[in-house]
Amino acid sequence: MTPSPTTHKMLSPKSPLFLSLFLALLLPFSTVVTALKLAAELTTIEYTAELIAAKDYFHNGTATFTTGGVATIVQDKSIDLASNAETQALRQFATHKNLRIIYTVSEVAYRLVARKKSAVTTAQDLKGKKIGTFPGTSGAYFVQKYLASVGLKPADYTVVSGSVCRAAPCGSGTLPAMLASGAVDAVGLWEPTMQLAIDAVGAGNVVVFQDKSVYRELFNLHSTTEKLQDAKTRAQIVAFVRALAQAQKVFAAQPETIWSRVAAAVNVSADVVKAVWPVHGWTGGLPADLLDVLVAEDQWVAAVDRRAAMSRAVLADLVDGSVLKEALQG
User: Which residue range or ranges hold the SsuA/THI5-like domain (predicted)?
Assistant: First the structure.
């Protein structure tokens, strides 16, 4: 049959119908690239496992990072994942019950560093002393929790507010500078601030206290019920957790291969990253005692935030192990 002029015109390569049919034929064979958006404190060593996972092992799409954490994900619906210590998760979950912990990125055994010149030999010697930390954070909780384990109550010492430092020389108001000047007798926080405090005073001039059985930071990956209930987004989150587990194997078994990348990512000396690496754990998964930690810690967070503590039953909803289960099955 000879096509009519009208039919021939409709099937012209330049016609809208032709282009529509062409795109429709291509669509089943095209790859749809999706992007996850993550909020993290981009100056912390803990988050770098997520960064390496996104760059080296996440092949299901792309992942972009923005500065923030769990406070960001509960406020910004464009965020798919967020990481923070358990303290901040408890703070946000109190008013945002859609928040979920889905994976543990790192477990960090915090350190309390004291000056020998302050007549400190044992942790009990910190009675009557000034302790520098960052109030309202996991660092402050660690200080109180650790000192309670050696018999000291909050009334037995004075907490002094200080800020973090990521590179020497540490400026005025940072915890390492405060310890070196004698403005405080001891400091407790996350790394690399504690290593820089040791370096500022001198390793031979400090006493370091640490007990991960009393406290270790659980730096977790979070999402929301809305994101996890969306099939497309959930598939990407599961794939990212799988990629994160791959990255953690390198962090645990071959750290020397990524120290320089971690240092560059957080603008910290590679030597400092190497020095603090032993206090970081990269086992992944979800710790068996996670809920126990949350229940105990919420007593402190609730008091700081002047609210009632949440029950164990309520806090159980904060932890969602289903994503990890799916990731392990893949």
Answer: 70-257
